[in-house]
Amino acid sequence: MGSRVVVLDYGFGNVRSATRALERVGAEVTLTADRAAAQDADGLVVPGVGAFAACMAGLRKVRGHEVIGRRIAGGRPVLGICVGMQILFDAGVEHGERAEGMGEWPGAVERLDAPVVPHMGWARIEAPEGSRLFEGVEQERFYFVHSYAAQTFTRGHDAFADPRFRPPLVTWAHAGTPGHGTRFVAAVEDGPLSATQFHPEKSGDAGARLLENWVRGLG
């Protein structure tokens, strides 16, 4: 039997594509907003499309933020995708309005400072050494479609970081041409919590390998 994965169906995700992509790499997938099922699964996937504030409101409506928080506290794997990654930060700022996020990571998600927004299409990533998520696809391209992103990541990477704890592994990507554009957070691996700004379910063989890596880590 494959690992049991719940794709959280809270009204703001590319849920069908994510479900099919996870099934193709051997996971036993349930698409649901049921909190007990989401809590008990081997892995929880939180997709997200659209506006940060709307996604957060949808998540709270099904009390998904409580499930995510409990899973992380208990060391149980969670994977956020696109806006499902963005809501893990302190806040999102869209059109001058600030919406509170889950606060798992410090910082705000803001509009990309790039010549062309939205940033759409295939882009290479800069994966850190030791990444399990990108094992075997460190040099590949992944599919992005977004206007906002986290453009800094400080937790565990600043002068005040506690050396007893391993800092999160942060993968970066670039929107725009060299010298014109901005570097942004493309993925984070932080203990049981992983997330990607790109869409692995739309990223062909590279995305399938990444999802396979994540599912394999569910044990």
TrEMBL record:
The active site is at residues 82, 199, 201. InterPro entries: Class_I_gatase-like, GATASE, Imidazole-glycPsynth_HisH. Pathway: Amino-acid biosynthesis; L-histidine biosynthesis; L-histidine from 5-phospho-alpha-D-ribose 1-diphosphate: step 5/9. Its EC number is 4.3.2.10, 3.5.1.2. SUPFAM superfamilies: Class I glutamine amidotransferase-like. Pfam families: GATase. Its main location: cytoplasm. Keywords: Amino-acid biosynthesis, Cytoplasm, Glutamine amidotransferase, Histidine biosynthesis, Hydrolase, Lyase. It catalyses: 5-[(5-phospho-1-deoxy-D-ribulos-1-ylimino)methylamino]-1-(5-phospho-beta-D-ribosyl)imidazole-4-carboxamide + L-glutamine = D-erythro-1-(imidazol-4-yl)glycerol 3-phosphate + 5-amino-1-(5-phospho-beta-D-ribosyl)imidazole-4-carboxamide + L-glutamate + H(+); L-glutamine + H2O = L-glutamate + NH4(+). Residues 6-215 form the Glutamine amidotransferase domain. It is found in: Cytoplasm. Heterodimer of HisH and HisF. NCBIfam families: IMP_synth_hisH. IGPS catalyzes the conversion of PRFAR and glutamine to IGP, AICAR and glutamate. The HisH subunit catalyzes the hydrolysis of glutamine to glutamate and ammonia as part of the synthesis of IGP and AICAR. The resulting ammonia molecule is channeled to the active site of HisF. This is Imidazole glycerol phosphate synthase subunit HisH. The lineage of its organism: Bacteria, Bacillati, Actinomycetota, Actinomycetes, Micrococcales.
